């Protein structure tokens, strides 16, 4: 079985290393400019730390550069001057593609990006739920085939995409994960403006959010859509727009226009002309 090392010992590397070690994948070691971080990740995964990159690379078949995105290129610049023939060089980045490995063909190595669609929050407990993660791969055919085989053997759903779609893919994940938090936070603020305590705002929104998310995931956005836009209630939307601040309208309007498209597909016989006119003319 191929051995894996991690250059960079943050949450993702710590979690993935522990998870793979628990499933019998040999972890050859960690290195990081923060030796305390490297030591804790290595101890957690039952392996050791290295201070010399070439020594770690020499004993590893698969090398994941698991640093922050803005450091990956400098690590690659060091790696490509070493003997990495037939080795797999990987990144976990959601936004960067394997094309960051410029000149990799001349080294004889194979580049891959393996992004787990998973929200990492705790370096020492997330590994317990990592079996639920889906992985998106792109890169060299040899590397993709090897990493895909490993992940599917562990029971993961894997989708392979083209490198040019990587940033759009990551934006989609960010909308579903990160930006939803922004909408929730905005809703909390608006309810507290109305006199709710924070605790009451959370308790009122929680079942609404949970029901809608469950409906979206078990059926479709169209089936889950309810409310004044779906009903074509232009008067209510007019009142919403009147009480929103300019910044709040900037968030509300593009999402409302998106919902109009969903509503039209759901109710092809319903007239949404007045709603469309209102949303398009409001700034």
CATH superfamily of the largest domain: NAD(P)-binding Rossmann-like Domain
Instruction: Please identify, by name, the CATH architecture of the largest domain.
Output: 3-Layer(aba) Sandwich
CATH topology of the largest domain: Rossmann fold
Structural class: alpha/beta
Low-confidence stretches: none
What portion of the residues fall into strands of 2 or more residues? Answer: 5-15%
Alpha-carbon distance between the two ends: 59 Å
Any idea of the CATH class of the largest domain?
Answer: Alpha Beta
The H-and-E topology, N to C, reads as EHEHHEHEEEHEHHHHHHH
Kindly provide the radius of gyration, computed on alpha-carbon positions and rounded to a whole number of angstroms: 24 Å
**Biggest sheet: strands, sense, closure?**
7 strands, mixed
Strand arrangement, major sheet: 2-1-3-4-5-6-7
**Number of structural domains:** 2
The backbone outline, from C-alpha atoms, is elongated
